[in-house]
Amino acid sequence: MTTHAALNLESSASRGGVLTLRVTGALDYDTSGYFTRHATEALADHPATRVLRLHCAGLSGVDSMGLSTLLGLRRQLDEVGAALRIVERSPRLDRLLTITGTFEYLVGAAESTEAEQDSAAAESDSGAEADQADAPKTGRHAGGVSG
User: What 3 state SS string does 87-118 have?
Assistant: First the structure.
């Protein structure tokens, strides 16, 4: 494992050409160079890599430079015929990728549709909760009578 003050990266290779890179901390302006160096070194150490799994459960934030770094990593992998799989993403990361129009490119079309459905469901649930919160306490709420 290698460590930067605000970002920890741990790489591990498995059979079948899959390299996993676990990310903990923030991927931002201050840490993007470190992330790129570590990922490039890990790929050089494992030249048979066909898939880089970027495990993001511990990723606390991504700014515009971090997003640019992910896009650069994807291009780097495309050049050598390897795939990027961003897994264990937070809803916050999914939202950033969706808003910036990079979700499908970085994550994939199939997961893009699932994320949009999850996002729509969350917004729908959030709207229903807001409607109920705004309703008078008489048993009625927006959209009808509770029963």
Answer: ECCCHHHHHHHHHCCCHHHHCCHHHHHHHHHH
Q: Would you state the pLDDT for residue 13? A: 86
CB-based contact 49:57 (threshold 8 Å): no
DSSP labels, 118-144 = HHHHHHHHHHHHHHHHHS-TTSEETTE
Please state whether beta strands 7-14 and 18-27 pair in parallel, antiparallel, or not at all (unpaired).
antiparallel
Q: What are phi and psi of 48, to 5 degrees?
A: -85, 10
Rounded CA gap, 59 and 71, in Å?
16
Say what the pTM is: 0.72
Residue 141: beta bridge partners? 144
Kindly list the distances between the CA atom of residue 69 and the CA atoms of 62, 73, 115, 117, in Å, as whole numbers in the listed order: 10, 6, 22, 27
Q: For residues 12 and 135, what is the distance between their CA atoms, to the nearest angstrom?
A: 53
- Phi, psi at 123, each rounded to 5°: -65, -40
CA distance 52 to 39: 9
86-101, pLDDT tens digit by residue? 999 999 999 999 999 9
